């Protein structure tokens, strides 16, 4: 296991434990590593050698990145969970340069309506913004889903077929001998991961139940956010609503069914 560490502006892959470094660097890396809980993996650290400040980014096993600000002379501060590593790194840049953590000015600005079309029609302009913000929410929801399931229509059909076979197997009495080749998708599970057909069916149903929990939460948040966007009175309010903290509901990172 290794972490990408930025030390004095140079990115390095640092194995665990880290190699010999200057004592102050080793101490700072250790402080950042200590912040990562059992559900986080330290990804990026950066320091200011003049002040002794450190900024650490850890990745949650359930998804998302946490930014820690670690001053030299007082307890650390935990900042918001961000959806992507690039967002978290921008937060680090903001903090290192004295800007608020949430100042995402380095991000591309939200799309603006064509001025020549909507300059004299604020109602149409706001409607245009809302449609694009809602489309962003849909795209981001799909990104959130992809932490747990592999996207694609064919993959979705595979999941459904595998779950249907698992349901059929578990509904069959233990004493009944199941014909060979009857359950093609579960046979593939057994071939890849071992166990019996019934054990594979149990694994599939457990994973499907987990996915329904987090998938339902994503859907509820997606629909509620789009309703809030539709009711928002200003463009700024619309784009603020379009930044969603998606649920990190499964206890492990990875996709059911893969």
SSE arrangement:
Blueprint: E1 2-7, E2 10-15, H1 23-35, E3 40-48, E4 53-60, E5 65-70, E6 77-82, H2 85-96, H3 115-118, H4 122-145, H5 153-170, H6 184-193, H7 197-231, H8 235-241
Parallel strand pairs: 1-3
Antiparallel strand pairs: 1-2, 3-4, 4-5, 5-6
Helix pairs in contact: 4-7, 4-8, 5-7, 7-8
Report what the structure shows:
This protein is an alpha+beta fold and 258 residues long. The protein has two domains: 2-96, no CATH class; 115-241, no CATH class. Helix content is 48%, strand content 16%. The protein has a six-stranded mixed beta sheet with strand order 2-1-3-4-5-6, sandwiched between helices. β3 (40-48) and β4 (53-60) form a beta hairpin. α4 packs parallel to α8, α5 (153-170) packs across α7 (197-231) and α7 runs antiparallel to α8.
Descriptive tags:
single chain, 258 residues, alpha+beta, 2 domains, 6-stranded mixed beta sheet, 8 helices, flat, disordered N terminus
How much helical structure, as a percent, in the residues?
40-55%
Termini separation: 23 Å
State the major sheet.
6 strands, mixed
Strand content: 15-25%
Shape: flat
Quaternary structure annotation: single chain
State the helix count. 8
Helix vs. strand class: alpha+beta
Question: What's the number of structural domains?
Answer: 2
How many strands in all?
6
In short:
48% of the residues lie in helices and 16% in strands.
